Amino acid sequence: MGSTPPRPAGGERAPRLRRVLGAAAFPALFLGLVVGMTELPEFGDPASPASTHLSPRFIEEGAAETGAANMVTAVLADYRGYDTLGEAAVIFAAGLGCLVILASGGARRDLPVAGMSNRFGSIVLDAATRTLVPVVLLFAVYVLIHGHYSPGGGFQGGVLFGSGLIMMRLVWGPADASPRPGSDVPTFGLSLRGSLVLASVGILAYVGIGLAAMAFGGEFLNYGTLPLGSDPAHVRELATLGIEAAVFLTVGGTVSLLFDTISIGMRENGVPLGSERGPRE
Amino acid sequence: MTEIVSLRPLLAVGAGLAAVLPILLSGRRPALREGWTFLAGAVQLGAALSMLPAALAGAAHVSPALPLLPGMPLQFRADPLGLLFLTLSSILWLATSSYSVGYLRSLGLKHQTGYFAAFAAAVAAAAGVALAANLLTFLIAYEVLTLTTWPLVVHKRTSGVFGSGRSYLAYTLIAGQLLLGAVVWVGMLAPGAQFTPGGFLAGAASDGVLRVLFVLLLVGVGSKAAVFPLHGWLPAAMVAPTPVSALLHAVAVVKAGAFGVLRLTGWVFGPDLMHDLGLSLPLALLAAGTILMASLRALGEDHFKRRLAYSTVSQLSYIVLGGAIGTPLALAGAAFHIVAHGFLKITLFFCAGSVYAATGREHISQLSGLGRAMPFTFAAFAVGALGMAGMPLLPGFISKWNLALGALDDHQVWVVALLVVSGLLNLAYYLPILRIAVFEPGDDRRVREPSPWLVAPPVFAALAAIVLGLAPDAGARFWFLAESAARSVAEHAPEFLTGGLP
Amino acid sequence: MRDVLPGLLVALPLAGAAFLPLLAALSRRTTRVPALALHVAILAAALALFGSVAAGGPIRYALGGWPGPWGIELWLDGLSTLMAVLVSGMACFASFAQAFGSNEDGAARGSTPLREGLLRGALLLLVAGLLGIVATRDVFNLFVFLEISSLAAYTLVASGGGRSTVAAFRYLLAGTAAGSLYLFGVGFLYALTGTLNMDDLASRLPSVEADAALTVAVVLIAVGLSIKAALFPLHGWLPDTYVYTPTPAAGFIAAVMAKVSAYALLRLLGEVLAGTEAGAVVLEVMIWLGVAGVVAGGVLAVAQRAVTRMLAWSSISAMGMILIGVGMGSALAITGALFHMAAHALAKGCLFFGAGGVRARGGGDDVERWAGLGARAPWTFAALTVAALSLIGIPPAAGFFSKYYLLSASIAAGGPEGIASFAAIILSSLLATVYFLRVLEAVWFRAPAEAPDRASSGEPAGPVLPRPLALPVVGLAVLILLTGIFARPFERHVLPDWETGTARIAAEAP
Amino acid sequence: MTTYAFAAALFALGIGGMALLPNLLRKLLAMNVMQVAVIVFFVSLAFKDGATVPILGEGGTPQAADFMNPLPHTLMLTAIVVAVSSTGLALGLLVRIRSRFETLNERRLLDRLR
Amino acid sequence: MTEGHLVSIGLLAVMLISAGCALAVKDLLTAAALFGVFSFLTATWFALMGAPDVAFTEACVGGALTTILFVSTAFRTGRRFD
After folding, report:
1. Quick one: D114 exposed, middle or buried, by C-beta within 10 A (0-12, 13-18, 19+)?
2. What is the DSSP letter of B62?
3. A48 touches chain C (CB under 8 A)
4. Which of C148, C163, C171, C172 to mutate to test the interface with D (most CBs of D within 10 A)?
């Protein structure tokens, strides 16, 4: 930064004034919102615009048009599949960001690693985790696949999958979670690099399905044109499963990335990204 | 007026601009570098002269229009007034360039490449001001002129010089922004804002708005013209090398400002609208005040160049005065004064620069004895000084005579008195210089004329001034151009103003 | 072409953003060439779209084959394709700088092909987000892409380490608050109309009778987007962010980030919500805040000694000018605002690349330390001079014309706000004169201060800024001049679409 | 209406906390509260009296009045993801800031930056 | 007002209180834990509102993931009020 005088921008001084103003502003914000809300349609009103304008089609035609009994999945993955692609991109951006911020570039000082092994590590917990983790991972896959018919889908499944991984690291701690003795990479099979690969592949698969639809003459993400069968709803159902899987990969990878970087990132030599080593896989 | 669409106006404007890059690139070979300058000057002069026959025939060369803004193209037009200014600037550019060569070399100044490049750009901008067909083009050229002369002003690069440079920019750029505002406004009122003899704003808005616009525009162009009280930057800008001062005063900046005032009064508002709005008399009084004030300041100034600077402030207000009066003869006199003052003032500045180059002296009281040591220089100086004062047979007389006649056409007798008084004041501050230089004994016997590069330009300029005084319509037909510019304005003026039209 | 390009425009950057990190993670080679190729391809798509829209009129594109209002639509008219060209063009320059320019000290440490791949991915993600905002016709989708661009921007800002993480954190807080405010406003609109599609909204809003609720919705949306657009006094995040962002990203973020939010404001307030009473009031308030921002930004820029911080404040001033234009909403004003977006983006990008380059080479950020640099790198600094003059508003640089349009619009608007904006724009030019000429004077005419560290070590001075950065700087300067000179065609392609668009919406309203 | 007001209260609480709390981690908690408030608002918009979860049961053609509005639910899934993403990134920044400047207190941090 | 509505409003009130507590308590770890409570309450409320998908996601994300991230950050950065 050279000889830049480190004077931050104006407006940061006089915190007292800001506090007074702020303390007054937020009740005012609340009141303003409430005033506006008094004119909104009554809570629970079945005749409100929100309930009568667009949603009837989603409810009444959704299953027939997209093949998903869960209307939320129908809207999420099909009618507004582009939003969901954006959603996957958002979480991917967060993972990318944490990698850039924490897992590469030198850290001045080491912070303690978040892990509970030295506190809670016990034989009971260990055994419980050994039983629980496979169940959680399996349940994650179930949630993914069953998203068509019940609450759930790629996103929830991905989070569960990531949570399973996190659970192991919480209990066993980063030092023991590594499958390979002697390795300083404190992960359970899924290195940071691996997580990154999963997440990227997820996004690529999603965009790829969208582009494939374009290749068959439809719009971006118009699954109906994919040559997967004759029944359009069925084709859409299959494609929806595909993009749910893509979201699953992205979310699962990113969740594990987020946890790893936030809880262990920045340790010197603790993370493979900052060093010049090659890929592990 | 018939219009001939041609590329010649573009050539005239572009010559200097095109020379900038070659000059910058040939910085290591001074001869080549200066060759580019002379080539560009010659091209510009040639383009100007080639457009003269059309002007004599009552036609004008017009460049193709480049659409920049709705209804406001970038366009150049060689009407008589523009052609007059263009021709003058290209002749004086050549003279100044040759003088610069000698001056810079004999003083061993640094950054010569940048100097010549900025010089070329500044002259191109002045040509753009001269040929601008509408207010937008004028504004663009005007701003470019400001910026390209700034490096010239701060050429010496000492802290004091930077102060002067900032003062120069403060005046001219602030004025430029006001001008921008005014131009936008005019563009909204009268789409196109094309310079029209006799003005185009009549009836475009209420009187109050027009008056405000006039003040904005006047401040915009008047600050470059150093009209009181906007003249503060001009004496300060005397820190520049002498050829730059010569350029600033005789060709580019100040003269462009005075030219702008003429355009404003004759081609934007027009004499009759100015009369209707009651603007003529205040402007004339402002000009008169400037003339007297600057002359008095010049009397008390010992710094050689600064005295010349105050003289410029005073002399250029003649042009403003002529624009304010607005009768054909006054306008013709004012337009001709652009030329007359150009030749005379450049002579004076060349002389001051030669003295500085030969002796390093900058103050009038130090000039004693130099008249004999430098006879050519001071002979030229005498011509310039007398011409400024309005001596018959010299060009200053012609412009002042016509100004006076024009004022009488409008029954403004006080102008004649003003002209006489200011002529006397001129003598009062120029003659002592000659007296000190010629009659007081010198203390340094080693002083000689500097190199021929420095002697020839002032002598040439003085001779040209004499020729111009004897035959104002010879050669480049300056008088004809001035007169036909004035006539074109007058053709659109009401009856009471057209008296005395030749 | 017309039925493929819109999809490609949004799909390409997203695919690239995932592809580059993947490539970097799987191979040890640099991702430089693929990144550049992707950016060029995106620019090509944007240019092709611009041409196609100019020739054949606006394009409506139903993503997933679901037409609006049920599905999400893209809407590409002259305005949005212009923004797309601007965004993707600036991204090309940033990508070039990222590919070849050396990073700044903080980021250079421990830089690996993987890290570079991640940063390139983040840049593409940012581009994806901005292009998504520009193209979408759905208010919720706009939020999603706003967040994509924001998260990618935080990443790029924070990649400098040290202070830049603090700047990024503050930016994140402001940006998230902005996003939530916007989303709350969208919730109000949804409750009132039951739709999220902009066209549908515009046609259903006039029959909504809940004035207070509508006002709250408009205010929430306007405030949210104004934070992102750094409208005074909601600009708090901007100076530190611009100052501490590493160079390649700073040139891009400073150039287009806030402008895309201003574009969103224009779309929503100027087109979709224009018919509402609250919208009109908010637009008028925006003019006044713009005036305040123009003046405050200019004054504070004068007060700065550090070049980048000065540029940051100047950006606040410029955003004020753009929002004045958005607020006025006349054809002239919109032209001026759009033109200023382009002119300012080009100039600020150029200046931030230059200033960042000087800083990266240890040249410092203080005006005094810029003394004499012009002689050492004449071409680069000539280009920076062009950019500075454009921001001052000197013809024939592009900035002159945007000021001209905005001044004309102020006069045409009349009334106190017209006068105030007229005066503010003139004043901002003067202030810009003051702060930029101080730099130019140092650069060109002042003798360089003795640099003790360099003089004592005796090593040769080396280039003033990394050579690869000189190309974007010079290229942008050329573009500034070209944009200025060829101003008219630009306007002719963009405005008619906009006017027909607003006219169509006005006609649809009962 | 009361439900809406709770969303407004949560929102004001969150955004106020973001602005006023000195500790950066606490600011993030407040930020999450703010984001949840928006989600609460949208979900309450989706509610219909007498309707059930938007998942098609066995048989019969679905009637719009029988199911909750699925659109806000969908939107809010996305919003939740956005919330966790920005929180995750912010926490990453926080760790970095803490290790570099050794404080999470805003005022101390700004003092250290001066 | 139906019974369901009353339950919903009661739940909302508890949510508001727990959010306020999470922002007010001194210990950062407690704050993070209270935030987890808040998230689970919210998820319950979503389920009550007939939004099982949102509830499921909120439970996964807000209750589990975000809380875990907050807790581990609090661990690393020092749990005391700073």
Report:
1. exposed
2. E
3. yes
4. C172
Omega prior to C233 cis, within 30 of 0: yes
CB contact under 8 A, D49 and A46: yes
- The three-state DSSP-derived secondary structure of B402-428 is HHHHHHHHCCCHHHHHHHHHHHHHHHH
- Which residues on A lie below 8 Å from E75 (Cβ)? 112, 114, 263
Task: Give the Cα separation of B95 and B102 in Å (integer).
Answer: 11
CB of B387 closer than 8 Å to CB of B395:
yes
Ordered by start, the domain boundaries in chain A are: 63-264
- In 3-state terms, what secondary structure has residue C366? strand
Q: What is the pLDDT of residues B291-333, one digit of tens each?
A: 999 899 888 888 888 888 888 888 888 999 998 988 888 999 9
Q: Specify the residue for token string 């701690």.
A: A173
Sketch out chain D's domains with CATH numbers: 2-49+69-113 (1.10.287.3510)
Q: C interface mutation test: which of B17, B136, B173 has the most C CBs within 10 A?
A: B173
**Interface confidence (ipTM) of the complex:** 0.86
Give the residue extent of every domain in chain E.
3-77
Neighbours of chain E (3+ CB pairs under 8 A): A, D
Q: Which helix (H) or strand (E) holds B5?
A: strand B2-5
Q: What are A67-87's pLDDT values in tens digits?
A: 888 888 888 888 898 999 999
- Residue A264 corresponds to which amino acid? I
Query: Which amino acid is residue B211, in one-letter code?
Result: R
Identify the three-state secondary structure at position A116. coil
Phi, psi of D62, deg, nearest 5: -70, 140
Ranges of each domain in chain B: 2-497
User: Residue B350: which residues within 8 A CB-CB, separation 6 or more?
Assistant: B95, B99, B242, B246, B380, B454, B457, B458, B461
CB-based contacts of E9, cutoff 8 Å, min separation 6: D2, D3, D6
Cα angle at A119 between A113 and A120, to 5 degrees? 115
**Rounded (5°) CA angle D71-D76-D81:** 140
Q: How many domains is chain C partitioned into structurally? A: 1
Can you say whether residue C433 is alpha, beta or left, with left for phi > 0 and alpha for psi between -120 and 50 degrees?
alpha
Whole-number Å distance between alpha carbons of C168 and C247? 15
pLDDT string in tens for chain C (510-residue length): 678 899 999 999 999 999 998 988 888 777 888 899 999 999 999 999 988 888 888 889 998 888 878 889 999 988 889 899 999 999 999 988 887 765 444 444 456 778 888 889 999 999 999 999 999 999 999 999 999 999 999 999 998 878 888 999 999 999 999 999 999 999 999 999 999 999 999 888 888 888 889 999 999 999 999 999 998 888 888 999 998 888 888 889 999 999 999 999 999 988 888 878 888 889 999 999 999 999 999 999 999 988 999 999 999 999 999 999 999 888 888 888 988 999 999 999 999 988 888 887 777 778 888 888 888 888 889 899 999 999 998 877 888 888 988 998 898 888 898 999 999 999 999 899 889 988 888 888 887 765 545 444 444 456 777 777 888 899 999 999 988 877 776 666 666 666 666 665 556 544
Q: How far is CA E43 from the centre of its chain?
A: 8
DSSP string across D88-103: HHHHHHHHHHHHHHS-
Task: Please give the Cα distance from B130 to B478 (Å, whole number).
Answer: 14
Torsion, Cα B6 B7 B12 B18, to 10 degrees, reads: 180
Q: How far is A124 from chain D (nearest CA, A)?
A: 31
Contact A207 C28 (CB under 8 A): no
C48 to chain B, closest Cα gap in Å: 25
Given an 8 Å threshold on Cβ–Cβ distance, is C159 in contact with A40? no
User: Can you tell me whether residue B134 is helix, strand or coil?
Assistant: strand
